[in-house]
Known about the structure:
By secondary structure, this protein is of the alpha+beta class. Helices cover 27% and strands 21% of the residues. The chain contains 3 helices and 5 strands; from the N terminus they run αβββααββ. A hairpin with a 3-residue loop joins β1 and β2 (26-30). The protein is globular. Bound molecules: guanosine-5'-monophosphate (5GP). The site of guanosine-5'-monophosphate has 14 residues, from β2. Residues 6, 15, 17, 29-33, 41, 87, 93-96 line the site of guanosine-5'-monophosphate.
Amino acid sequence: MSEPSVFERIVAGEIPSTKVFENERVLAIRDIAPKAPVHLLVFPKTGAYADVAELAAGDPALLAEIAQIAQQLADEHCGGQFRLVFNTGADAGQTVFHVHAHVLGGGLTEASL
Length: 113
Ligand code: 5GP
């Protein structure tokens, strides 16, 4: 067994977080080091999927649910417009290998890609 990810520890209540959404399968929190005026993280409670490709292959409905929750959160926090980012692999900046969507919004006027 590998160590639980930071997000599994947040789900378990071992690490505090600011929750903005929760249901049976998904949790969303504020990022501890925001890179945009609105920076939320949306992830499955299960740590079974390391990245978005694993999630897409293993549970596509859960990936779709995360996208829908991202829209709902953007509606609530930043006028419905947002950037959805899944860093995939260390070379792409992924540091937590428990799939998570970054929801970025609130005045992103320049594309970074
Ligand atoms: P990644 O770099 O893997 O795409 O994104 C991981 C994100 O998790 C980073 O933006 C980082 O700031 C955030 N993060 C890491 N540890 C914690 C934590 O303990 N609490 C919260 N709220 N965010 C965290």
